[in-house]
Amino acid sequence: GENVEQHPSTLSVQEGDSAVIKCTYSDSASNYFPWYKQELGKRPQLIIDIRSNVGEKKDQRIAVTLNKTAKHFSLHITETQPEDSAVYFCAAIQGAQKLVFGQGTRLTINP
Amino acid sequence: GAVVSQHPSRVICKSGTSVKIECRSLDFQATTMFWYRQFPKKSLMLMATSNEGSKATYEQGVEKDKFLINHASLTLSTLTVTSAHPEDSSFYICSARDFLSYNEQFFGPGTRLTVL
Predict the structure, then answer these.
(1) CB of A2 within 8 A of CB of A100?
(2) A105 forms bridges with which residues in the sheet?
(3) Secondary structure of residue B98 in the 3-state scheme
(4) Residues of chain A numbered 75-94 and touching chain B (CB < 8 Å)
(5) pLDDT along chain A (111 residues), means of 10
(6) Cβ separation of B43 and A89 shorter than 8 Å?
(7) Signed CA dihedral, B110, B111, B112, B115: sign only
(8) Could you tell me if B42 lies within 8 Å of chain A, comparing CB atoms?
(9) How far is the C-alpha of B109 from the C-alpha of B94, rounded, in Å?
(10) Is any Cβ of chain A less than 8 angstroms from the Cβ of B21?
(11) Which of B111, B71, B79, B105 has its CA nearest to residue B3?
């Protein structure tokens, strides 16, 4: 089955700097890669996703890149703000099957 | 967008009792619903997948007789934690998918279960 590894587990950056979180996956058949933001006690919130036929996707300050050959994908947040502080999860899915989540990254934005 | 609700949001129960958690898709028909468990500072772990009108498919290590899942309609799935013990205390989150969303899952707000 699919296995998703996420790094780093914690990340602290200064407000205004960029943050990058990386994930690798094991199943080359996986074709959908969402990123979620989760605040304490809340549901995971989809912030961006990418499909396997695309190499990069951007939405304002958030971007995701996908390298299918290396089987890794990354989340990039630019011009970070205090409200970006949360736990971020990557995930991978093959077809219509189940989502497999990474271990999570606790992002702290220091003012 | 697609909305999923869960009830209750918090529940405290005594050890040995059973607790039922409801997951509803409010504005779409959920052909598939998923149940996750999340321990503090950990990731979401899939417990089971349920398709409307079918028996749930449980992940390895999840006791199907302890975590009863019913998906009797296209808008409602229930998770019953039977004979709950303190180690069952966790954050339980459901998600739902319809045949149009294909990959994307819509998450409920979660239920915080505390077993005393």
Answers:
(1) yes
(2) A88
(3) coil
(4) 89, 93
(5) 94 98 95 96 96 92 96 98 98 83 97 91
(6) yes
(7) negative
(8) yes
(9) 8
(10) no
(11) B105
Token couple for B88: 């069952």
Which amino acid would we find at residue B27? D
| Residue A98 to residue B42, Cβ atoms within 8 A | no
Q: Which helix (H) or strand (E) holds A84?
A: none
Residues sharing a CB contact under 8 Å with residue A69, sequence separation 6 or more, in sequence order:
none
Residues B60-108: pLDDT tens digits?
999 999 999 998 899 999 999 999 999 999 999 999 988 777 688 999 9
Q: Which residue's entry shows tokens 């979660």? A: B110
Query: What local confidence, expressed as pLDDT, does residue A55 receive?
Result: 92
- Cis, bond preceding B109 (omega within 30 deg of 0): no
